[in-house]
Protein 1
Amino acid sequence: MPPTGPPPAAGRPRLRADAARNRAQILAAARTAFRELGTAAPLDEIARRAGVNIATLYRRFPDREALIRQIVIDGFTVVLQAADTALATAPDGALASIEELLLHLVRERETLVLPLIGGPVTEDPEAVALQLQIAARLEDLLATARDQGAVRADATAVDLITTGALACRPLPYLPAEQAAALAERHVRIFLDGLPPTKARPLPPSPTNADLTSYWKAAKQPES
Amino acid sequence: MPPTGPPPAAGRPRLRADAARNRAQILAAARTAFRELGTAAPLDEIARRAGVNIATLYRRFPDREALIRQIVIDGFTVVLQAADTALATAPDGALASIEELLLHLVRERETLVLPLIGGPVTEDPEAVALQLQIAARLEDLLATARDQGAVRADATAVDLITTGALACRPLPYLPAEQAAALAERHVRIFLDGLPPTKARPLPPSPTNADLTSYWKAAKQPES
Amino acid sequence: MPPTGPPPAAGRPRLRADAARNRAQILAAARTAFRELGTAAPLDEIARRAGVNIATLYRRFPDREALIRQIVIDGFTVVLQAADTALATAPDGALASIEELLLHLVRERETLVLPLIGGPVTEDPEAVALQLQIAARLEDLLATARDQGAVRADATAVDLITTGALACRPLPYLPAEQAAALAERHVRIFLDGLPPTKARPLPPSPTNADLTSYWKAAKQPES
Amino acid sequence: MPPTGPPPAAGRPRLRADAARNRAQILAAARTAFRELGTAAPLDEIARRAGVNIATLYRRFPDREALIRQIVIDGFTVVLQAADTALATAPDGALASIEELLLHLVRERETLVLPLIGGPVTEDPEAVALQLQIAARLEDLLATARDQGAVRADATAVDLITTGALACRPLPYLPAEQAAALAERHVRIFLDGLPPTKARPLPPSPTNADLTSYWKAAKQPES
DNA sequence: GATGAATGAGTTTTCATTCAT
DNA sequence: AATGAATGAAAACTCATTCAT
């Protein structure tokens, strides 16, 4: 259930009902096509799957970039909501909240396609803002978990983001169900490695500044 | 240092020195291009990066498939060698060997491109054989580790493969060094979750049959 | 000040005030766009410049042809009025009247766009009638000038038309003011060559029949 | 007979014979098409007329701009050669040389298409250099003519350029022969206005700086 | 063995035109 | 009367592949 409603009051007039439906169909088709064929998927193919004319697609999204951008934003919105939910339940056990969050993302993989697979693909302010908000939520979540003694001190929000991103990336050729099962097992093992441990400390993490440059990275490869 | 020499005595006459050099340059360029642009990268572009004419590329690799196939085989060869090494050192501590193996793969990420990123992209017998050999080595490795009490009973070779594959997939836009650092942290946390634990058991794993169908999956998406 | 009012009582009901304004804006935008982009300028673009929806343009002008036709007629109307004025002042010195006429056209270049630049672009009876009237006025003007001994015997109305047309064609990239200055100089030198002279006679002129076929030429190129 | 041979030793290797033939055919087809349909003429159409595949056209000329550029340069080369010839014969009567030059251009109209019709369409250094050389030749020619007492003092090279440009611009819809006849008459009358005269002096001419900005004008309209 | 060249088959993008609101 | 929306058709541009040198 990706958010495809009209962008929140962004100066633009609300779309006519049929146009809004077309727009949503285009986004859904694009998500599927990008997942299956990469972000270089032919736009006519996307239009065909959406049941609209290619020119209609172009009317809504002036270029491939714009289409990708919307999917990224929709995906990040889903992640942010999940992070908010996790944060709300954190006082009752942050580690469980984290697990819930990561498993939720794994289950929603199909929707998240680009933000997690393709990584940040735009410097669009809206997308960047969402990313920073998500990072902030994860930091809070980890802080709570650490206070509860549930998570090792050297784990960072970046580690959670990495794990979420990796686990959501489709392992190609694997049917959705099996991919989900594998991803879930992977997340579970990872989480079992997260509590405080006598194990050697982790190697140094990239800093927040690095993360930011990561989030803001300029250009996206075509796939 | 990916293996780019002529495949061992496969009936084909040895290449002339300049031809061999061209072949190696083409493979190197293809690896880079596939990583950056996906496996749909224009062959023109690959030839250009390799500094040869497109027709020369075609002489060496009759189609995109053949180019991909060689890269996959080269990659699996690297993985198999690493698995062999890990197995040899396993008696002295299998968990450390596993860690060594996974971190080695992370460090060799650039070379492994297709086998791990793109997954199996061919039904080529040579590639399939390599994959099965790798799986067998990992099973042995896990068995040894279990015997040593170092690894939980419900972890499988598939989990290791998944982890290796995920950790090697490039997080786009992240500079190589930082990507490696993150991947290493991820592997380390995962490994800390691997020993026997009182935690809930893992959800069921896809079976070996599933794995095989995974390895043999018929057609590759363009990215 | 091009004439853009509704054509005089042609059976059509008078336009509503806002509709008339839209119509005028469309014509103005079309003149500019045709000048800058050629007569193949996108109708979208014209509508955009006029600040109306493309469908509104289509309501007023069923096709590109109709739009062009109106601009041509407006232009010829301007030329005819100028020729009438010239004829009225001819008894006081026809050469000066001719100069006045040509310079007037040069100054009105922006308005005349199509009739002079693109030539006759329609077989529309109204346009053809205007053209014939203009030719007749110029013949009269030349006859008067010849009677006054001010113009060589072998100059024809066609020469005047040619000169007017050429001088009005925009030399691309030249700012309007400089283009006008150059055109004025050109007309002035040309006029200095117009009086009776001992110079060799001019080569034969295309006949009136040729001119007619010129005026009536069937199809317009896209630019 | 436009110059279509390989560009003078411009670093590029000489074209293969068949490629050179294709290149020449493309340029010839483009000249015709641009004349008939404007510079927005479909490139498909040009390729079709040239008897080559559209991709072949793209191989030689990466975009429409490049095609236009070459035609402009070829055209200016013709003009420069004619100006050189005129200069060589100037001592025997510069006015006759000027007439010869202008009439030559009129006769070569078909070849000159873009430089004179569309004006300078590029800031390409080669094209600009040619334009400046042409202007210099015309200055010399006028200086000689003035010394001979054959041309009024206030006529400038810019006037000659204007006249050449105007006379060469096709009056649309007029068959080539008649257009040439009219153009020739026009040039002849203009030339009869060129000798010293008691007539009022001409209005001020745009300066050389203006001319230069004219020649260098950045962007070309699509027609 | 290598390359310049050409091409057919896409894919992307634009535009004239119609329709429903 | 005006507009948002949709579309079919065309034009621009790219790319895999083959051929002749």
Protein 2
Amino acid sequence: MKASKKKKLEAAGWKVGSAADFLELSDAEEMLVNMKVALAKKVKAMRQEKKITQQQLAKLIGSSQSRVAKLETADRSVSMELLIRSLLSMGATRAQIGSIVGTRKTKKVAKAKKKKALVKG
Amino acid sequence: MKASKKKKLEAAGWKVGSAADFLELSDAEEMLVNMKVALAKKVKAMRQEKKITQQQLAKLIGSSQSRVAKLETADRSVSMELLIRSLLSMGATRAQIGSIVGTRKTKKVAKAKKKKALVKG
DNA sequence: CAACTGTATGTCATATCCGACATATGTCAA
DNA sequence: TTGACATATGTCGGATATGACATACAGTTG
């Protein structure tokens, strides 16, 4: 978080910690979730492009249809690892995956959510 | 795997399956490992650039020195998730991480390892 | 309507990953 | 040498992710 913003928030009565504080963590957490959602969408897109069912993809990656469904909906029980493994198994290149990971989709709601996450001091 | 290469291998007496075969999986696995190693190196590089100890980084990400050590050596017990989370906690951008994920480091040993992984038919 | 296909959701036992701790190794200075 | 500090390695109980299964839901076809 920028120092100017932090000062403003503190002046408004918000409790803002240091380095490992709530906000920073939630920032990282949010980015992680966004990455997962982006990867999940790619899994679904690639599968549909290949015209195969979740069942078939499941077999391809040695898993089950239900887990593939969770993968594509970015369920909280799925790891980054499995998402990437799935993409690789469908033939995605590291460059493609890197592009997804590195491309931030601008979201308008971000700010509102962030404010909610703050703790009134 | 390219069709030409597959044909060659089969002619030489190697058993080569289809889509979900051993080779493809081990390819994905190898890429995954390579990604992890690249991310691990970045964790170490960023930490050293910030001139902080593993202990301090551990505190920053809510972990322990031993786990940070494993992180930086790409121990098999560390997940992609934790690697990325650590980078984000140190202030890495999605673009930076995406670049690491997407950049393949050419390795000469790859071919030899691949041949070893084949199953004589 | 029923029957079928594809996808989503909930649950569970087990496998994997986690932080934490002890301890080893390595380096440098007193 | 001893001590202090940074990093690596092994282990362990608890937390989380896993594949598998049942089942619900949504289309489509007959």
